[in-house]
Amino acid sequence: MPRWERVADAEARDLLARAERDLRGGDATASVHACCDAFVRLIALRPELLQANIPGDHLIHHRQFPRLGADLYDVDGRPAIRFERQRFSTGDAITYFEFTIDTALSEQL
Amino acid sequence: MKFGLFYEMQLPRPLDAESWDPDAERRLFGEMIEQVELADRLGYDYVFFVEHHFLEEYAHSSAPEMVLAALSGRTSRIRLGHGVIQMPPSMNHPARVAERIATLDVLSGGRVEFGTGEGTSDTELNAFHVGRAVKKSMWEEATRECVKMMVQTPYEGYEGEFFSMGRRNVIPKPLQRPHPPLWVAASRRETTMLAARFGIGSLGFGFETPEETAERVQEYYRLVREECFPIGVAINPGLLVLNQFMCAEDDEEAVRRSANGPGFFSYSLGYYSTSGGTARDEQGVSLIERHQPGRTNIFRNFSALPQEQKDGRRQLQQARLLTQEEIAAQEPEGETARALFRAARSGSAIGSPDTIRRNIARYEDAHLDVMVLNAQCGDRRHEHIMEAIELFGTQVMPDFQERHETKHRRWREGQLAGVELPVNSSI
């Protein structure tokens, strides 16, 4: 069973299902966008995820939302994703996809 | 489980001088060759070398292809691993990588493990003009095309986002067909899953615990079975974990000889790693910002820390790789007892042969394929490393290797049942 099926929140699960379809269909860029939407949804459910995933003092570490050109920011206490790139690779998409699922499952969302 | 050695080629500056003596690097490389020759004689399966640039004291292995070429002539069985080649084209052009891998494979009689990576420290990425946001895409494009260069006659050519090259026949071709086993460095969990989806081995350089490994192994092999779209021509399903290592006749001596190896490893890794460095001063300013190339004595700074900050956990905490709860876990009194407690908890290979056997058995239970041991780190002594390699190689490793053949191989075949993709793997 794909791991995204274990995500409890229906909206996040649907977005992750779409992300996986796009990934399998070869549209990595669409997949990254769906993952970002899913992560923003997770933050709506668990607001403390926002600060936990913003690098402090430009420090990036291994347990934060990836910064591969779809970067998470705190804009007046609300999450914002800035897309620094027009196109993403399959590897980028897998990275965002797996991180978002890991977060959803570890937070039991 | 199979076993290997792992080398950053650490060379701490002396405490009582501003820089190394003129013979220090020759001695370091000479001792490493003796260590690998011994490992080869004892039946260790692998040796892996990093590629890092400008990371003084932390990693003097900047030209691993040269080291592995030297070792190919001085060893006969041990497999020669890149752990890893930094694949962004401005660091290593894919055609040059294909040529070097193939040449080494021919020279060594087909013993190359082709580990790939994207680079991580600003010190390196900025020097080679590699953007952090695009480095993974660079890795993917370069790795995919590099493999094609090894298998196509002639290579069809490529017009890409990060490099382009016309139709050429890239020679020589590797001895292992279609190409040597492919790996990717995975310090993040999601990169291990990326490896599974691309059908390549995961080089777990994040010192994953046995529990983390157990979860990753299951998900990794599920993805290989169900969702694999290979980046290479042949897949190399496998997980490798890097582990801290020091073996001696008894636990106390092993802890004493382990000394500040793991602590300096973590400190210097944090000093250079990721963006801005994770090692911080008491004001929270990253130490790398004050780094003076060719001048700063990182080992002296490390040595000046209070003892409780030298064990690596402080650096892990600063990097937020350990939680407060993990840091606060109940620990015994006394330095040696505490070191052994931590080794047992994390599955480290530090202790007597019995202790190590017990600690790493949890990785075997997790169905880990390969463990590589970080023996050479900090200012450890060559003779202690040699004894550790010998003790482990004669008293611990053989039983695990035998069970690899009699049990693990069958388990792995079961995991890969139904996978119809071609495989080239040394596991």
Layout of helices and strands, plus pairs?
The complex is a heterodimer of chains A (109) and B (427).
Chain A: H1 10-24, H2 28-45, H3 48-52, E1 70-75, E2 78-83, H4 90-106
Antiparallel strand pairs in A: 1-2
Helix pairs in contact in A: 1-2, 1-4, 2-4
Chain B: E1 2-7, H1 24-42, E2 46-49, H2 64-72, E3 79-82, E4 85-86, H3 94-107, E5 112-117, H4 122-127, H5 135-151, E6 158-159, E7 164-165, E8 182-185, H6 189-198, E9 201-204, H7 210-226, E10 239-247, H8 251-258, H9 261-272, H10 298-303, H11 313-318, H12 324-327, H13 335-346, E11 349-351, H14 353-365, E12 370-374, H15 382-395, H16 397-415
Parallel strand pairs in B: 1-2, 1-12, 2-3, 3-5, 4-5, 5-8, 8-9, 9-10, 10-11, 10-12
Antiparallel strand pairs in B: 6-7
Write structural notes for this entry.
The complex is a heterodimer of chains A (109) and B (427). Chain A is mostly helical and 109 residues long. Chain A contains 4 helices and 2 strands. In chain B, strand 9, helix 7 and strand 10 form a beta-alpha-beta unit. Chain B has 16 helices and 12 strands. Chain B has 427 residues and is an alpha/beta fold.
